[in-house]
């Protein structure tokens, strides 16, 4: 073992003389450093799959004194698990890692990991299955325990969670950073029921939407923009509440079963902040908040949203019938633009909207098979049997069937929908979709059922298991996450 490390160090030092050999040799040496480091390296990501404290000490002796800029160039090509590990090799490497992270210079596109929990791993532990390494890492997350929370989304390295008082938090599983979102009682449809001491005991959930009306309401927030043929807002049409049922009262830990559907986190670069979009009941309406806001802002009058995305300052949202709206949240008055009207003959159990790397907006339909499912059983199974892809023609306002993803892949589920290139992510399978469960009634109502999770061949409509046997628990439902080292500023 000692001989190996000595030889490795000598070779690394020679790279200062022959920099063109740096990349090929460092990648030949690094895997060995990481793999054969028992008792020598103190790493954040351990070879046992567990997370250890990121101490900097090492028994390797004097490490090669490569220039920091060269180390940073190398480290910038690594995926985050490897990056964190090499950052714990020695003080010089740790310094290069910290500089790369803190200066925002680390831009490498990450291959998504599957995030899940396991009863045997512990209540506070999240597991990450790496598609690159085909192995699992374990990360200890801050309180409250991750297995006691609902997971309602992941975007840009952040999980959106709901605790046992139905309050929402953002969690970065890599950095451990946790951000509290505005209270659930600031959502339009939620009212707190408070005891004499001022403590929230229960929640009242109202079942109303907004509808168009002929007179201006007293609340100026409830207005619908009217567009001309050039899709420019010319006037506003007031709206009013449309009540479907009498309000219901829920315990503080029960509201999340009936309110939270799916959430997304999007960087808002123009403001140096983050936007959190929340699809919630009744009738899957849309609200949003910026990190640091004191309340959620309702976006009426539309309902039945299934998925969201964000691009060029616009929040896009798609309904189960394929209708796409784009909200401009940058000004004091929220503008909304109709991108695509209701689509005829939508035959989908789930619908997604993806901005492809080449510029197209994709509309993706997912159809599940429930013919063999026993809905009276606690362990019935749904399975994905078809995924259809359409390109949105925003000029003609229609859908065009998209036959093949070629060298791209999709990631679908209870997370931000993604389209990635296999040129940037060579470990992924081209023209395939990686999917997890996201059918609300199923994942909430049948928590002990096996999850509909796998890799779907878009050419022949054949689904394969991601790994067998499946190591993950069925609740909270597993989801895809693209890891990030970015810290969130709330100023």
From TrEMBL:
What PROSITE patterns does this protein's entry cite? FBOX
Q: Name one Pfam family in it.
A: F-box-like
Extract the SUPFAM superfamilies matched here. Answer: F-box domain
Question: Which residues are in the F-box domain?
Answer: 60-109
The record, for PANTHER family, names: F-BOX DOMAIN CONTAINING PROTEIN, EXPRESSED (PTHR44586), F-BOX DOMAIN-CONTAINING PROTEIN (PTHR44586:SF23)
Q: What is this protein called?
A: F-box domain-containing protein
Q: What is the scientific name of the source organism?
A: Urochloa decumbens
